[in-house]
Amino acid sequence: MKAENRQPFTIAGATQHTMISNQGHPYRILISAPQEEAPSEGFPIIYLLDGNAIFATVVEALRIQSRKPEKTGVYPAIIVGIGYETEAPFSSRRFTDYTMGNPEIDLPEQPDGSPWPEHGGAEVFASFIEEELKPELDYSYPVDTNNQAVFGHSLGGLYVLNSLFTRPASFKTYIAGSPTIHWNKEIIYQKEKMFLQQSESENISANLLIGLGEHEQWHHTKMVDRAKEMADRLQSCQGLNVTFIEFAGEGHVSVLPPLISKSLPFIFSANG
After folding, report:
1. What is the pLDDT of residues 4-46, one digit of tens each?
2. pTM greater than 0.90 (yes/no)
3. Is 114 an annotated catalytic residue?
4. Which is the catalytic residue, given 32, 119, 153, 154?
C-alpha cells in the first residue's frame, strides 16, 4: 500500500484531553459520547481505569452491542477512559493511583527483586475523580448522575473494590476484573470488614461484578479463590447485588475482552 495514501485511524466521535489534577498530575482523558439526542435523565456514564489500554475495546463493544438494545440489553452511554500521557498501554503511575496503605505493609516481591514504583495514593486519586473529573464531565455532557459505573482490571480491580468499600455512593455499578486482593491484602480485608459493618446501619444501593480468568487460579496468589471468597462474603450485604464470573480458558490478560462483553449488559441490567 502506498505510503501517501495512509491516514491515521481514529475512533468516530471520540476525543482526548489532557487534564492536570490539583495535585499537579497529568491525565489523558478519553471520551466517547453518543451522537443521538440524550434521554431526559441523561446518558449513563462508564469510567474506565487504564484508559490507554481498554478505551477503544470498550467503545467498539458498546457501539456494536447498543445497535440492537432490545436484544443485547446494552444502550448508548458516555465512556470515559482515565489514562496517562504515554503511548504505552500502561503507566507506572497506576501503582500510585490504584493502591492504598503504607508501602511497607505485606507487599508481594517483584520477580526481579527491584523495588515497586511509588504507591499508596488511591484516596488522592478518588478525590480527583469525584471533585475534579466528574464535575467537568457533568457540566460538559448530559450525564445521568444516578447511573454511573467504574471498570478496573488487576490493580484497577483492587481500586474498584476499595472504592466500593470506602465510597459506596460514588458509582451505581462496580466492575472489578482480576482484582489483586493479595496486594496489601490486610488493608483491603479491613476495609471490606468495615464496609460490611457499615452496611448494617446504612442504606447501600450498588452492584458489583467480579470477574477473573480460570487460569488465574494457577498463580501463586490464588487470585480466583481470594476473589470468590470475597464475593461470597459480600453476598450478605443488604442492598449490594453481587455477581461472580470465572471465565473458562482465560488468563489474567486474555480475560479482558470477555469481561468487557459481559460487563456491558450487567451495567444496564443492574441499573435498569
Report:
1. 678 888 888 899 999 999 999 999 999 999 999 999 999 999 9
2. yes
3. no
4. 154
